[in-house]
Known about the structure:
- With 185 residues, the protein is mainly alpha-helical.
- It has helices at 3-14, 18-27, 34-41, 54-69, 89-100, 104-112, 120-125, 140-173.
- It has 2 domains: 1-86, no CATH class; 88-171.
- The chain is built from 8 helices and no strands.
Amino acid sequence: MTNNDILRRLRYTFDFDDSAMIALFVLAGREVSRAEISDWLKKDDDPLFQMCIDELLAAFLDGVIKDMRGQKEEEQEGEPVKFEGRLTNNMILRKLRIALNLQSNDMLRILSSVNFIISKHELSAFFRKVGHKHYRECKNQVLRNFLSGLQLKYRDITELKQTFDDEEADDESGEGKDVSDVWTR
């Protein structure tokens, strides 16, 4: 998976518009333009497509963490976050886990929602230090399935809730469905 794929999936899952994405980058101390975001989100074969480098995706994920979990007390607002070097799938998974405040059981449920079953021990191996004897590299398949599970958990519920809210508003205004034959349905 490319960084652009991950950025696209997260944008869709959490329904971030361009302004929200710019604000998330600013939280991590990075200034980006709407045009840059647009170029990162374009299809790979588009002539204006630009690769999203590891440093930028890491900044975006750090902005998501700060937005969802709050600023650390020792950090100042908009202070650039130190970049760790090469961004791996393990780091991406860890940052998403922190941002969403997920426990192991939550992550396993998200993965099982897309029929991807792993054990708690396999999952914990992704979060170990690189030199640890039980460390395991997070493959693209695991990250892809986790992002798909997040989409099911966050995006689909948002759309269902919006549909429900729309129907409820119609009911209150007296418009909407004819309920005269509700018992025959």
